[in-house]
Amino acid sequence: MSIWWALSASPDKGRWTRLVIVLSILSMGASACSSTRHASVRPGRAETTMVASWYGTKYHGRQTASGEVYDMNDLTAAHRTLPFGTRLRVTHVGNARSVVVEVNDRGPFIAGRDLDLSFGAAKKLGMVEEGVARVKIERLN
Questions:
Q1: Within this chain, do residues 113 and 71 fall inside the same structural domain, yes or no?
Q2: Do residue 64 and residue 8 come from a single domain?
Q3: Residue 20 near residue 85, CB atoms below 8 Å
Q4: Measured between alpha carbons, how far is 91 from 93 in angstroms, rounded to an integer?
Q5: Comparing C-alpha atoms, which of 83, 79, 72, 81 is closest to residue 51?
Q6: What is the DSSP string of 62-84?
Q7: 8 A C-beta contact, residue 105 and residue 66
């Protein structure tokens, strides 16, 4: 489709309707091509800094978005866009503790947070008490 096609067709009313449709399609395509900071965590690239939180007892034993049963003591994470099975090295910026986790769920669903860690991962990072922390993420696979 092109803008020329939208404007060259017959009556004025239909021409502007087609123009609006074409521009909408072009706009959707442009927004689909834009990247987010979540998608920028790629293997072999520099570490990315994010805000992480953790989740535990409320979801323990429930099914995750990947189909696995959530075990709050495992070393897992939830991320909005990374594929399930992605392994991440997560390092707490404040204390330099590090842990390797596997993405098996979607989330977090609270604004300003980029990664949800299992209770087990948060405990290893020393962030259980604070609840939310700045972390460096390195994608391993």
A1: yes
A2: no
A3: no
A4: 6
A5: 79
A6: SB-TTSPBP-TTS-EEE-SSSPT
A7: yes
pLDDT (tens digit per residue) in 33-66 = 433 444 455 555 557 999 999 999 999 999 999 9
Structure confidence at residue 47 (pLDDT): 77
Structure tokens at 68: 């696995």
| Token pair in block for residue 65 | 């978005």
Tokens 């390092």 label which residue? Answer: 91
CA–CA distances in Å: residue 32 to residues 26, 42, 67, 105, 129: 10, 18, 27, 23, 38
What's the CA gap between 2 and 23, in Å, rounded? 9
Structure tokens at 111: 């604004």
| Assigned token pair, 45 | 């690239």
The model scores a pTM over 0.85? no
Token pair for residue 88?
A: 């991440």
Q: Are residues 73 and 21 in the same domain?
A: no
Q: Are residues 62 and 18 in the same domain?
A: no
Mean pLDDT (the chain) is 82
